Predict the structure.
Amino acid sequence: MIGMANGSIKGKALAYVLVMLLLAAITVVIGLLIKDITYRGYYLTLTLGGIVLFTSVIYAISIKLKSSEDVKGIATSAIQALWVSTSMGLGYIVTANAPYFQIPQAYAIALFAIGWVMLLFGLYSLLKLSKESGVPLAV
Amino acid sequence: MPANEETKGKDVFGDFATLVVPEEHTKSTLNIFMIYMGVLAVVAAIFAGSGLAQMYDAATMLKVAFIGNLILAIYGGLIAYVGGSTRANTYMILRYPLGRLGSLIGNLIVSAIPLVVWFAVETWLFGLTVNVIYPDNPLTSIAAASIWGGLLMMVTAYYGFRAMAILSYITVPFWYTLVVIGFFASVDLAGGFDKVWAARPEVIAPLGVGITYVVGLYASGSVITSDVARYGKKPWSGAIAWAVHVTIFMTALLFAGGVMTLLTNSPNVIVAIAQIGLGVGALLLAILGQWTTNDNNLWSAALAWINTTGKLNKRVWVVILGVIGTLIAGLWAGLWGMSLEPFINFAVYLGYFIPPVGAVIIADYYVFRPLVLGLKDPKERYKFGPGTKYPLVNVPGVVAVAAGGAIAWYTQQIGWGAPVINGIVSAFVVYLALIVLMEKLGISWGVGEWVESSTGF
């Protein structure tokens, strides 16, 4: 039973981090789509999305390499990665609609929405992981 | 004498204000790093870069900021290691180089008084910034914004280290990314990086002037690094976290502020961000940045007051000091429009004596105890816990701090050398000269005795 619970933590942690990775990848793709329209919007997505992509990949590998029994280590890595992604979600919410970036409205709304998903999903997954693993949010 | 690990005492004051942090409450190096980054995440750090822009071109600014911050990394890192190794906060550590009574005075000089003043000033600046961004709303008047800002900052300090860490985790990546975006946007709007490298003031100052300026910016903050470093999982966690954050990120913030000043004559990243249509971003930048810095000011001040009085717990002190600071910001400055200059002048005057306190800690922990008293093991040099005996006054320590502070003040008045560094070096030399001489001559350098109680006081 304990083994199953530990395996489930590892699976959940990986899933949470990979969801963030996927969302960040979508924002980078949006950036590529608007590259010829606005270099500012392109660099914005490259910065925010790139940070999440980089962090998620590094931490996903770190979680994958950990033994399922190492619940604390897995949760610590995942929580650290999720804090960064959640914080960047806030970044998208704040920046996507700013006139300076000249992002076409449809794309800006998409980035804004993804930012909210990252923020809310991040907070949910942080609380869930912290509760199930006993690792504090202030890891 | 009891060992740190064996005696924990009762944490009656909260956040281990008078006790060694137990192993199970220690945090990762990343956690410590995030707290330091949260403290640094304040617009004033960017504003400070404008001082460099009046002296140097961009490339030289970068060099000067890096060297100055490298000195701060070593100075603050050495002090942070003392906290990490002993798991004690600044005010407990001071019991050794200053003595128990001496440390009470040290607490007042280092944190208890100046940090309340800086809390008030930062809270007022917060109100001012919010008012600049949103000028036409009663809730964003300087007085109102100072008051609700002050209350916000009290919340995380009230709940303690863990709450401050959570706020830093959500704030720090966002804050620094937004500053980078604001920086590049203002460079972009001002004509690009070609203009950055070409811009220069009329007269270039000697490198030493700028390095001194940079060291002076954060020398006082470097002295209280142990307050956070004591939570480090490893003895070196705080030292590494401090060194990395100050060398890389403080340098980057100063450079950003300096470049913005060279290009636009204003280092105001908040205004720049508001100008590019990020009104909400600018507001969040102001709120979160000031919040993560000022809750730490309040928290450290509360720890210092507990160690000075031995009365009331951390939460009560946070409320008392927070209300005082908020009233000074909101009513005194915000509503009545009176100047904060008298408070600032007093804090600046006390500030001359803060870096020498750090010098005395370094001299005592790294030189006197291992090389003269033969305490080679870092964990054996300072011990805490109920029953521990401390001298009431460490005479060389008190004399060295007074001398270092006076020399820093005097050399500032006559414009000789680098006052902050003069104070640090003087205190270091005076302390070692006196205590080594007294020890070798068999003269007691510690006067009286104080026995630690079960509460750690």
Notes: Strands of chain B lie at 389-390, 393-394, 446-447, 450-451. Chain B touches chain A at residues 27-28, 30-31, 161-163, 165-166, 169-174, 177-178, 180-181, 184-185, 188, 276-278, 280-281, 284 (CB under 8 Å).
